[in-house]
Amino acid sequence: MAQLQKSIDKRTALLKATLSLVNNGGIQSASMAKVAKIANVSPATIYLFFENKQELVNQLYLDVKGSFAEAAFREQKSDDEVKKSFEKIWIAMAAFKLEHKEEASFLSQCDNTPMIDEETRQEGLKYLAPLFVLWSIGIKEGIIKDISPYLLYAFSIYPMAFLMNMDNRALCPLGENVLKEAFQVAWDSIKV
Amino acid sequence: MAQLQKSIDKRTALLKATLSLVNNGGIQSASMAKVAKIANVSPATIYLFFENKQELVNQLYLDVKGSFAEAAFREQKSDDEVKKSFEKIWIAMAAFKLEHKEEASFLSQCDNTPMIDEETRQEGLKYLAPLFVLWSIGIKEGIIKDISPYLLYAFSIYPMAFLMNMDNRALCPLGENVLKEAFQVAWDSIKV
DNA sequence: TTAAAATAAATGAACGATCATTCTTTTTTA
DNA sequence: TAAAAAAGAATGATCGTTCATTTATTTTAA
């Protein structure tokens, strides 16, 4: 019982250490030795929890994507209008990314690395299902453009990653005003 | 004279080899030894052209960004309307990314790697100056939203990276129709 | 209830491979 | 023949991973 908790704690510590290392130095710099050191564990111990480095990173991907989705859809109410519902989700996503910069940056890095395998990506995509459902409702109601959800995502959600990047580099600080403008742009792009 | 050309050729071969390696395996997998082997050169020779690996990658970044920009603005005419001009640029960018997938994927990978230093990023940004000029004209004419160019870029250009990613993974093939839809979305997002 | 035995968890050291980089030597060029 | 260009071998460091061993926990037997 306490044993199980200890296992969970150690796993969490390993994921956290990986996240932190990836965040300053990229995935390549998160070596198993460093991860072990930060998690106060022997390198060999990592392999009791994860088959190899790739699985470690993939598990972290699912873990982070999961908490991102959880935050995004937390305040969903079924009787909201489509636009209002989308706005809530959009704002919650932005808030999560601003509050959890390490997580957000990690997810961005995952977009373009071959380290995450296709199966895991598909699994991660499932977390966003409520958004796709909302869009399909919006399309049926004639509120949202009748185009591929990939297009909708590309133009209304994906840009956040760029904005967060600019915010981190202090090139375009995301205050409340800019965020409101950004949402307006996002909505304009997908509304019919 | 012929010596100079040989130098240029070798440099080009090195950049090309790096691009190819980064493309299947990520930046980490483009080791100096592999780059040398593919370029038919000794590892030591690389250091006659580039100070270290970071400079090699940064130079490649500028090189690729340069040809991307060249392709993007090739058909610009000064008497085009703002919308028409933007459409030409947008289509040319998409065409470049579709025709040069290795280059496009490399640039995407560069967005989120610490390997590219801030100075080089700024330098690369300068290549896009004509686009920013166009936008400022559009803003003055009341055609384009009066918001930060970072926002305009995030919502009208950056999404291409996501779409190319989906196209490569065969999740959302970018035919002519989808491309036209995508441009419409891009324009809707930034138009006033 | 306690001591011994068995099992599980965790370790640090070590593996071969590969990394970026440099050194010395050889080849090419002028 | 002198100088420049390129080569291959070698450097120490670090990579992901595994191995033999120790430590901790649980089970068994008295």
UniProtKB/TrEMBL annotation, chains A, B:
PROSITE patterns: HTH_TETR_1, HTH_TETR_2. Residues 31-50 bind DNA. It comes from the Bacteria. Keywords: DNA-binding. Residues 8-68 form the HTH tetR-type domain. InterPro entries: DNA-bd_HTH_TetR-type_CS, Homeodomain-like_sf, HTH-type_Tx_Regulator, HTH_TetR, TetR-like_HI_0893_C. It holds the Pfam family TetR_HI_0893_C. The keyword DNA-binding applies. One of its GO terms (molecular function) is DNA binding. This is Transcriptional regulator, TetR family. It comes from Flavobacterium urumqiense.
